[in-house]
Automatic annotation (TrEMBL):
Chain's role: Catalyzes the attachment of alanine to tRNA(Ala) in a two-step reaction: alanine is first activated by ATP to form Ala-AMP and then transferred to the acceptor end of tRNA(Ala). Also edits incorrectly charged Ser-tRNA(Ala) and Gly-tRNA(Ala) via its editing domain.
Main location as per UniProt: cytoplasm
Catalytic activity reported: tRNA(Ala) + L-alanine + ATP = L-alanyl-tRNA(Ala) + AMP + diphosphate
Protein name: Alanine--tRNA ligase
HAMAP family, alphabetized: Ala_tRNA_synth_B
Coiled coil: none
PANTHER family: ALANINE--TRNA LIGASE, CYTOPLASMIC, ALANYL-TRNA SYNTHETASE
InterPro entries assigned: aa-tRNA-synth_II/BPL/LPL, Ala-tRNA-lgiase_IIc, Ala-tRNA-ligase_IIc_anticod-bd, Ala-tRNA-synth_IIc_core, Ala-tRNA-synth_IIc_N, Ala-tRNA_ligase, Ala_tRNA_ligase_euk/bac, DHHA1_dom
Cofactor note: Binds 1 zinc ion per subunit.
SMART domains: tRNA_SAD
Amino acid sequence: MRTHEIRERFTQHFVNLGHESVPSAPLTVDDPNLLFVNAGMVPFKPYFLGQQNPPFHNNLATSIQKCVRTLDIDEVGITTRHNTFFQMAGNFSFGQYFKQGAIKNAWALLTNPVAEGGLGLDPDRLWVTVFETDDEAASIWRDEVGVPESRIQRMGMEDNYWSMGVPGPCGPCSEIYYDRGAEYGAEGGPEADDNRYMEIWNLVFMGYERGAGDGKNFEIVGDLPQKNIDTGMGIERVACILQGVDNVYETDLLRPVIDVAEELTGAKYNEKQDNDVRFRVIADHSRTGMMLILDGVTPSNEGRGYILRRLLRRIIRSARLLGATGETLEKLLGTVMDTMEPSYPEIADNRERILRVALAEEKSFLKTLESGTQRFDTAAAAVESAGGKEISGAEAFALHDTYGFPIDLTLEMANEAGLEVDMAGFESAMADQKARAKADNKAKKHGHTDESLYRQWVDEHPTVFTGYEELTSDAKVLGLVRDGEKANSVAAGDEVEVILDQTPMYAEAGGQLADRGVLRAGDTKLDVHDVQKIGKKLWIHKATVAEGGLDVGADLTAQVDEKWRHGATQAHSATHLIHAALREVLGPTAVQAGSLNRPGYLRFDFNYTDQLTQEQMDQIALITNEAVDADWEVNTVETSLDQAKEMGAMALFGENYGSRVRVVEIGGPFSRELCGGTHVAHSSQIGPVSVLGESSVGSGARRIEAYSGMDAFKHYSKEAALVDEISKAMKAQSGDLPERISALSEKLKAAEKEVAALRKQQLASQAGEFVSNAETVGDFRVVATQLPAGVNGGDLRTIATDIRNRMRDDAAVIVLGSDNDGKLPFIVAATDAAVEKGVKAGDLVKVFGQYVDGRGGGKPDMAQGSGAQAAGAADGFAAVKSELQAL
Ligand code: SER
């Protein structure tokens, strides 16, 4: 049975049982504890915790959630069942059926005949586990389902108690295993062998909330408001069983990738164990990488981007170790897109973008590999010439850290060169780094706000937003929060959060900053400095009580700061125009990755790998301002998500949209976006948009910044004033400035050259003077003098040589220094006769260097150096003279 069909049967089974089918949330999740969604229940967390009421009919839901888990990345390809990306099929009951329903529903799907919509598994091959004290679950399995006692095993906290690994919902669980037969391992049930007995479904009886702690050591802090069910069936594992293949990498979605990898590398699957692991890594990571890029992740050095980078690099490296020499990602990712598209039709529109991101990373990593290989070769040669056998841990770590060289690549290459690697040293360097990173993370991580405080308001009084239509609204105070606790009244000076029945104030969302404004009731005035949403439903006004006091229940007037709103609105509409212009110029692969709109300023991040040319930038600015000039009407339409997509509205990756969405269009098809922000009514109201420039923000993403409205005007007039000033200073028309400035800079260069030549000449003419002023020190004639500032090392040499020539018949020593841009170049030259008498210029330069914090060296007849402390020069000259005296 194809994977796609397993998915459909799962969903149909639970829809028939009254569940609402909910689409998978994006892999990227807004949760400080998670990088990626790693279980089917993640998007439902607020409903389990009772922070929000489930919006599903019958309070039952089913989903097939995209999941990524990369903690076990090293297990990939080695075990038969570790995928970094997998699809978790789940059914969820919020206060409805509990253990009995969960168990019976799961059993029915697994064992019902295929002709009746089931998966047709042989019931005699199924084993189950329950939590050690869960007699209730055990008896349901035994007495109501008919699983023999001998195939029901009891396990402890570690195996049969599920939580997200962090504070949150949890509960005992019951798992269903499939016996794959004697060829896969020992008898004795899941307790004995979890390879032969493959876990396919986890039923969690989610009734509790846990506190902090590690592994199985955590405290249960209380009951959840109701008893819930969360289950997770591994689609990939069931596919592995139903398709009769050995491991998850050989199922219909991944096997074609292995085939392509064989073609690309020339190696064969199923020949060598090491190679097989590499093939499986390629298949697994190609899919995970593709799905992450699909959801908007781009490679970078931290967080999600780093995981993606690591996955892509592991593919490239594995392919090279298998024998590939060129680029491989295009074919590998292309293949996995083909296999995944039936279940994820959105892939079709994103193929080009996905490849663009992946190929940019591949190019840069191949370069890394090249320079890393050079560094490795140098290190290996040094070890060999020193007669050693081992690459040091520090070197291996540098390769890993600076060149992105995975340690097994270093090991492999060392092996080829007949060397070893100091793994203990490497690991301790890694451990140090990890400890640093951990400390760093800990410092950064912010906890959850305790949203339960707002639970009742979220459920019973979602805020009515009036701010699309008006900027001032009457409202009633439903609640007040001060210092994280509910309050009945607040007084002047307090920092508070105000909850109103309705508000015209825009809460920060979609890149647009929150409105500023005031709340007034009689003599009372509160200044609102931020507005945030909770659960997308409740507006929290963060305010300072400026005058008077306020009680819960009071009536007031909420008034948006018009100027602020006007500016933010202009910026937001301008962002839509730039987005549309960008796609017109760069094509549809330039997709939005993030944005910020505040009064007068906007920035827009998008996925694109190349730097934009000046011509492209000019084009984008022109199209944007033409759209302003066209005075297009701005329309907003409320519609279904499907309808919006049909209209071609652009949505953000990783954004979780509800079923009703708002589409903002400017100039009809010119710009259509899903957006909840505030916008101008006509495009001309945006005013001028001055595009400032673009820059890179991490690999595969770029940023455009612009001013809008009056700020664009101010920016232009400032620039104009600047040009004016320069024109005056240059005494030229503005149009002539570029030519005049470049002519001026040419002239300046020529003048500088001339000055330098003159200075040399002047010094040369002084050579005779220096010679006649020479002093006698011991057996030597000595010229020791500090030249005027600005003589560089080269000139110093010329002068010293000249003086030495003039004194060639004597035993003479010349010591010169200068002050050149804060540095002190110095030189010592000696005639042949002086050298014969034992002078070594190289040694004298070192003596001088000690006094000016400098270093230098050279031959007995000429040596040079450079110092940092010009103040020591006089002592330096004296020291050299006393050396000569002693000779
Ligand atoms: N949350 C449970 C799991 O991830 C069941 O869905 O295994």
